Amino acid sequence: MYKRSSIFWGVLLIILAALLLLREIEYLPGSVWDYFWPAALILVGVWMIVGYFFRGRTAPPENISVDLGSARSVSFKLNHGAGKLNLHAGAAAGNALSGSCRGGLEVQSETEDDRLEVKLRVPSQFWEWSPGRGLDWDLALTGEVPLKLKINSGASSAALDLADLLVTDLKLETGASSTEITMPARAGNTLADINAGVSSLKISIPNGVAARIRVKSGMTSVQVDSARFPRLEGDVYQSADYAAANNRADITLEAGMGSIEIK
């Protein structure tokens, strides 16, 4: 459906621009602005059609890895733009991170004392509006040591499966996105701060994990499993056994428009 829509709107723009241009040609030389907007519409239309034909013909994925070394904890900072982000456990033995990416990825890592800091960002030369291009990151993280995650994502589709990761701190900022998060199952205490713009957000909390959830929402539909997380007051929900639980998540959500589902 998306590809058909791209062709439809691209052809429509070209036809509209051509008609405007033909009308203006009768009044040559005329003002340059008489031709600028029709030409711009033609360019946009061609761009959309080129994007359709090149989509799916991207370069093969690039493999990446970061050694864990002697680090006893890892802090990840991810700046991701438009595209897909898939984050999960399963890094190769001895690695803090392993995976593949399309669209490029710049990685910086630094060890201080026994803590490893890893920064992942969009390449400086990457232009998100290039035809057929988009970020597609599939990243496996280590489940051997505690992790802190700070993720900044734009217009994206993100799947964050943290169930088998020891994530103690999660900070997530998203724009116009669709995001699914599975919280850690055995990380002890996990603190999560999530700020979502115009988005669809689904959060799954594994069985055996208690949670306290605070929701600050604008024009957002909020659905919380009240059997597991009864509403206390206002927009605060909490498991009955939260205080005594060995594994628990303290989640603060702030959203603009969209939908939130927590179960």
Percent helix range: 10-25%
Q: With helices defined by DSSP (H or I, 4 residues minimum), what is the helix count? A: 2
> Compute the gyration radius: what is it?
23 Å
Please state the average pLDDT score: 82
Number of strands: 16
Order of helices and strands: HHEEEEEEEEEEEEEEEE
Computed structural class: alpha/beta
Taking the alpha carbons of the first and last residues, their distance comes to 31 Å
Uncertain stretches of 5 or more adjacent residues: 1-5, 127-132
Overall morphology:
flat
Main beta sheet: strand number and arrangement? 16 strands, mixed
The number of domains is 2
- Portion of residues in beta strands equals over 45%
Can you walk through the features of this model?
There is one protein chain. This protein is α/β, with parallel strands linked by helices. It folds into two domains: 53 residues; 201 residues. Helix content is 17%, strand content 49%. It is built from two helices and 16 strands. It has a 16-stranded mixed beta sheet that branches. The protein is flat. The N terminus is likely disordered.
